[in-house]
Write a structure and sequence with these properties.
By secondary structure, the protein is mainly α. Helix content is 77%, strand content 0%. It has one domain: Formate dehydrogenase/DMSO reductase fold. It is built from eleven helices and no strands.
Length: 312
Amino acid sequence: MSIAGGRASGRGSRIRDLTVPGALLAMLVGVGVCWVLAAPDGPEALAIPAAVAVGAAVLLVGLGSLPTVGLEPSARAIGGVGGAWLIAALVTAWMRTADQAGEAPTSVGVNQFADTIASGAPELIEFIVAGMIIVIAVLDLTERVDPPPAAYAILAGIGVLATSITGHPSQQAIGPVLIGAHALAAAWWCGTLAAMVLTVRGRAGWAAALPVFSARALWAVVVVAVSGVIAGLIEVGGLGEIIESGYGRILLAKLVGMGVLIGQGARHRMTWVPAVERHRGSEADSLRRAAIELLVMGVVLGLAVGLSTTAP
């Protein structure tokens, strides 16, 4: 059962309906920026479906993490997002097969696709965990099981780890650890805010959930910032390489985006959170602020996806 606080206004409902699709579009814009910054050695074409897959996985982490802010997710929403993730991962794997074979996606055969998956493509993990999420959500909807929401977050987190670690090769043993921590913290931060937009209702709902989220998001931001900077410098090889390589320029753009997000978050802690705690401001205002933050998050996540498919 989610926190309720009254019926949303027409404006609030429109913002809620458009926020998640808008954040996905922002992710694709972020991937496009990567191509501009790293041309002609920019991200692989599979970055487009990979961005959709990452967006779905991040949202699932958030939906499964809603109890951390006093909310319960919808099994129907989880099942739908899980299905979108499975399809996006399928398209990503198909395009990975075409890239490895040097062929057009329309020329790829089923046997080639199976060989790519069998060779350890990260999408194999995505298929498994997305399929499990769909099955559990269906069983939940039919009231055959009553799974803890954390199960969805854990399964989605495994998929996030699989794609993030394999997408950023590192010569240092600590690299995958840093990248994994970075990806999971970012997934909780971005995904939980997106899930709150879909779930929280009314001024009272935001007053109950937002302060808790803000306090816990602070730790996620610290992990994201510290691990991201260290891992990025390890991959690039030093500050001097940032401007000279496409990978470095994308990394710099991502760092700038992170700086904007951190500044935005600090401002929200000083203005939005206190106002919400005092029950000032409308639900539509909270949704508007959350939507703006999610759009910036979407661009940064798109940059991250593009970075993962660009050679250092």
